[in-house]
Amino acid sequence: MAQDPKQQRKQARQMNDQMRVRREKMNDLLAEGIDPFGHEFKPTALAAELDQKYDQFSKDELENKHIEVTVAGRMIAKRGSGKVGFADLLDRSGKIQIYVRKDVVGEQAYHIFKRADIGDFLGFTGEVIKTDMGQLTIRPTKVTFLSKALRPLPEKYHGLQNKEQKYRQRYLDLISNRTSFDRFQQRAQIIKAVRSYLDNDLDFTEVETPVLHSSAGGASARPFITHHNALDIDLYLRIALELHLKRLIVGGMGRVYEIGRVFRNEGMDKEHNPEFTELESYAAYYDFYDVMDETEGIFRSAAKVVSPDLKIEYQGQPVDLGQPFKRIHMVDAIKEKTGVDFWPKLSTEQARQLADQHQVSYENYWQTGHIINAFFEKFVEPTITDPTFVYGHPIEISPLAKKNADDARFTDRFELYILGNEYANAFSELNDPIDQRQRFEAQAQERVDGNEEAQGIDDDYVKALEYGMPPTGGLGIGIDRLVMLLTDAPSIRDVLLFPTMRPED
């Protein structure tokens, strides 16, 4: 459909001088028979590979070798005048200098190079040399125009000044900010290292489970709801991977994991995004102590990507992931920090009295276990610095975890904390279908009493348990938080390529 002339005039008025000039150059290329948006091109080398292979040689040594390569990338700088020009070419591995001589490439190719703008994609075939200053450079014999940039890059290639812009226009952030580019490369390597550890060291099988669920379960969170027209039913975007993965343990798969997107209709801050990436793993015959060992292995495998000695720094605070992680019961941790002892059995009213004395707020539907957890979150969690497994969560807040054999008020569950932040949640899985239904029913009552994040009853999951699930250890790790920790990223938006953003006015 043809664009409305008024709209065309409006867009023309908004277009700045640089953009008009770039469009004029695009038309000039067309007039010269050159496609401004290019065709297939086959580079033979990346900038980083050339640097690794040839930077060790002197200028004379390289001149004698006559090494010819073809490179391609975005031109991010250009300088020179007359019949000689220099450019910096950026590809996915880094940048390399280009030295273009009119008497070498010919008049037409040199004209193309001189008319090219910062941001354009170009291909060069030529010899690897070193300049008098010792900089590894390509001296091309051939120039190929690949794609015209109709908008200028951020001012002087110094990056984005508007902090929000780097999240809204991640492509500009990746062009302008090499730290950000490298962080996302590291993210991919971290996930690859986690997969390698689970696949090769622990013999897990990676699987895929549905994103659309008939009921929202596996975690305490508000779901996103959608509607399936053909079936005329509401469905939920998954808030966790757990319940489908445990069905696979029932089916005999033994050790399974999934790394996938989950969705929670909750607030956003530097540690929370409505969609995020989670790792969940389940292993038959593990208990939660085995899962602690598994978790340490995962964190160390991931940390080696950024620090072979497993020592990192996050926001100015050192963390040693090579040392054995600390382990402490939640009740003991609370007693250490506050002197309050929750080991004696307390009624809900007694627990509320303790909460009142220590200015710990609570909801009307809360029981003793909820208040214990609130004490931990207020007085203990922010103080944890070294990697620490906090275990023994109250049964009221752990509807899918196995009861502790010695004290049924608590479960065989742990969370991993580092520098006051939670990085993992795990437990010996509840495999008693009768107990599981009772827990689901208690959660359903909590929802009636006002807890919007309480889980509902998943009848099919209970049915699966009735066929028998072996003792199983399960683990959940927020991949985004793990990447934040290992790459020293202050916000989850810095490790998500396209974080959820409020629409611009």
UniProtKB/TrEMBL annotation:
One of its GO terms (cellular component) is cytosol. It comes from Fructilactobacillus florum 8D. The gene is lysS. Homodimer. One of its GO terms (molecular function) is tRNA binding. It catalyses: tRNA(Lys) + L-lysine + ATP = L-lysyl-tRNA(Lys) + AMP + diphosphate. Residues 184-503 form the Aminoacyl-transfer RNA synthetases class-II family profile domain. The lineage of its organism: Bacteria, Bacillati, Bacillota, Bacilli, Lactobacillales. Its EC number is 6.1.1.6. Its cofactor is Mg(2+). This is Lysine--tRNA ligase. Keywords: Aminoacyl-tRNA synthetase, ATP-binding, Cytoplasm, Ligase, Magnesium, Metal-binding, Nucleotide-binding, Protein biosynthesis. Binds 3 Mg(2+) ions per subunit. Mg(2+) 1 binds at E415, E422. GO terms for biological process: lysyl-tRNA aminoacylation. Its main location: cytoplasm. Mg(2+) 2 binds at E422. SUPFAM superfamilies: Class II aaRS and biotin synthetases, Nucleic acid-binding proteins. InterPro entries: Aa-tRNA-synt_II (IPR004364), aa-tRNA-synth_II (IPR006195), aa-tRNA-synth_II/BPL/LPL (IPR045864), Lys-tRNA-ligase_II (IPR002313), Lys-tRNA-ligase_II_N (IPR044136), Lys-tRNA-synth_II_C (IPR018149), NA-bd_OB-fold (IPR012340), NA-bd_OB_tRNA (IPR004365). It is an enzyme of class 6 (ligase). It is found in: Cytoplasm. Belongs to the class-II aminoacyl-tRNA synthetase family.
